[in-house]
Amino acid sequence: MSEQPTAAPAAAPDPPQLAGAAPAPCPPASRAAVQQPYLKPYLDPFLDPELAAALAARGGVPAPLTPDGLARWQQQDAARRPRPTLRQLAHGGRFETAEHDADGTPVVAARPAGADGPLPALLHLHGGGLIGGNAYAVLPRVLRELAQPLGLAVLSVDYPLAPAARYPAPLHACRTALHWAVRHAGRLRIDPGRIVLTGKSAGGGLAAALALLLRDGGGPTPLGQLLLSPMLDDRGTTASTRQAAGHDTWDAVSNATAWQAALGPLHRAPDLPPYAAPARARDLARLPPAYLEVGSAETFRDEVTAYANALWRDGGHAELHVWPGACHGFDTLAPHAAISRTAVAARAGWLRRLLAPGPEPLGRPTY
User: Fold this and answer.
1) Is 106 helix (H, G, I), strand (E, B) or coil?
2) Distance between CA 311 and CA 363 in Å, rounded?
3) CA-to-CA distance for 291 and 286, rounded, in angstroms?
4) Using CA atoms, how far apart are residues 44 and 223, in angstroms rounded to an integer?
5) Taking CA 356 as the corner, what is the angle to CA 355 and CA 361, rounded to the nearest 5 degrees?
6) Which residues are CB-neighbours of 216 under 8 A, at least 6 positions away?
7) Which pLDDT does position 42 carry in this prediction?
8) What is the average per-residue pLDDT within 83-89?
9) What is the value of pTM for the model shown?
10) pLDDT over 80 at 2, yes or no
């Protein structure tokens, strides 16, 4: 197939710099410091029985992550999430795989083998609290659950991690990868007008932030944003943050540690840009259609539901699923649980409707 040249999009501006002197750094997070303001009166959240059994089989809720344990946690995380080779990702020839240097940002590309023509694509941003994870480890599930049944290409971005790379470096890497993909759409055999921003946890927060940055910087315009338990708010003041303490797999202490590593002295600053923490955005108009999901028993429940409400308030198209009794990362914890299988089917169904032929079925914006 001949490669079609694609015009390079206009470079988006860097996120604005905060005016004035930098705020004083926040003190290091600790279990006592984070939990003390969150003393309930909140009843313990309901946890789905299948998820509760899976959590118990793993030894219960993991110990919270604190700053003094971050380096060791990152070493353990890298060991828990080994990077499969391209041959392993190809899964016996079911997928075509390649590695690319997207103007300095590593990208892993995969697509169903033998698929003809330019495919719609997921720009996938991995989870890991902005401090862990990688572009490779999560790909087998993304390919099995979404790419193969829906006929999608996947471009998984290996963005840099905090604290070595703080805001805005990870966001800039994701934007660079998207611009590179649009310019090289012919080579990648993707449709540059049908790219969906996709991410889970920290990756979901980055996808939401990238959608905001592209809107404010002149594009390109993604077709949609698939935000799975996105990490949106650095402030950690919601009721679900308090209620989930001691029950969720990612609790208030771990969340504060990760945000502090990612933002440094900007953590909880009153004028933090929305590109750093999308929950800070005051205007969510003219954004791509969004799918948001979160568990009712997880730390991020209230910030995700608030973000969906803000999208609706500003005239946006958003589909929200709050999975009853689900903790953070529930579908990874227990992939065969009924609630996990239902969630995967709902994501695929939304993508199928988004990608359906016709006159912009989900109301795609123009910037």
Assistant:
1) strand
2) 13
3) 15
4) 39
5) 90
6) 12, 13
7) 80
8) 97
9) 0.88
10) no
